[in-house]
């Protein structure tokens, strides 16, 4: 369809020049709005630097980052070969941080993608079909929100074992319910719009309307929440590793803090450096999320 009472339908139309132009113009406005958000740009640059460090960890620090390379508890810049110092066992902190960034970002990204896929699927089905299916899916969603998230994550990891895959599963299980509720609310708001009624009038199938017309309009706020889910996943992973439930064969920022907490009075940098890394990663993701919210939210874009 290339014309309807709602301009959103024109923007989503796969055929016709007007739909493509409208969609391109909308994307261009959103990109300009994002670039005008200074905090979002700063967050994107910071996040890009963290990703570069994570991707280049194997090149800058080849070999096992958990191996002992020098005397223990060398302070930062005490030896130029180890600019961030060494930990209590004599391992290079810079190598641990670089390889830890790779594991932390991978856990956050995979867990966020899994949580988003589950949440969008359940929320969209509940909103579109409604009735008893909506009730069942929403009560099922609430089951995962009864237990506090941290307790739920620690319980799942303790049962499944200290492996990185189990950490991803645990984080995804506590992260999808908010996405499902948000997707449901967004789909319900579009379900009664005029352009959806027009699609039904011309005989489009419910699946086509849901997947091609309603769901794309409901996704922008879900994408914003996805960045926050990644930030939350980083914090959950840090808590798991801090308590010693993470994979012992993988470098982790949380594990570094946990191992350095007994020496925090004499060598406070052991906890400060990975703590700063966690803070910067979460801050960057939150800034990017704020920028995406301003760019993709029509009410904020007009303001």
UniProtKB/TrEMBL annotation:
Check the record and name the Pfam families matching this protein: BPD_transp_1, OppC_N
- Please state every residue range assigned to the domain named ABC transmembrane type-1: 101-289
What CDD domains is this protein classified in?
Answer: TM_PBP2
Q: What is its main location?
A: membrane
Q: Which residues cross the membrane?
A: 39-61, 105-131, 143-161, 222-246, 267-288
Keywords on record: Cell membrane, Membrane, Transmembrane, Transmembrane helix, Transport
UniProt keyword Nucleotidyltransferase present? no
The annotated region (Disordered) lies at 1-24
Which SUPFAM superfamilies does this chain map to? MetI-like
Q: How does it sit in the membrane?
A: Multi-pass membrane protein
Location relative to the cell: Cell membrane
What protein family does this chain belong to? Belongs to the binding-protein-dependent transport system permease family.
Q: What is this protein called?
A: ABC transporter permease
Q: Which organism is it from?
A: Pandoraea iniqua
